[in-house]
Amino acid sequence: MEIIIHSRHLDATEAIKNYINKKASKLTKYSSKINKIQYTLKIEGNNNIVEAICSAARATLVAEAIDADMYAAIDLVMDKLEKQIIKQKEKLKQPRRSRKGEAPIEEEEDEG
C-alpha cells in the first residue's frame, strides 16, 4: 500500500507522518485490496483539515475531517475511511440479483 502525504500551509513533521502511517496500516485489516491512500493536510484559520483519498480495487473512497487539533482530525478521517471500507466490503458480499430490475423473492409467514 502506497501512502502519500501532502501538506498545504504547514510543514508536516515526522511525528505527524509516522502517526498517519501507523493509522493507515491498520486499515489493511479491513481490506487487503487498498492500493494507495493520499492525505492532504491543510490549515485554514484555526481549523486543521485532513482529506484522504483511498484507491481500492473497485472503489475510490474520499473522507474529510476538520478539527482544532491535527491529530484529532487524522483520527476522525481514519474513522470515516474505516466505515466506508466496511460498508463497501459488505456491499460486495451481498448476492447479486438474477435479472435486471427483478427484486429478490422474500418469503412471508402467515400468522394464525
UniProtKB/TrEMBL annotation:
The keyword tRNA processing does not apply. GO terms for biological process: negative regulation of translational elongation. CDD domains: RaiA. Residues 89-112 are annotated as: Disordered. Pfam families: Ribosomal_S30AE (PF02482). This is Ribosome hibernation promoting factor. The keyword Ribosomal protein does not apply. One of its GO terms (molecular function) is ribosomal small subunit binding. Associates exclusively with 100S ribosomes, which are dimers of 70S ribosomes. NCBIfam families: yfiA. One of its GO terms (cellular component) is cytosolic small ribosomal subunit. InterPro entries: HPF/YfiA_ribosome-assoc (IPR050574), RHF-like (IPR036567), RHF/RaiA (IPR003489). Keywords: Translation regulation.
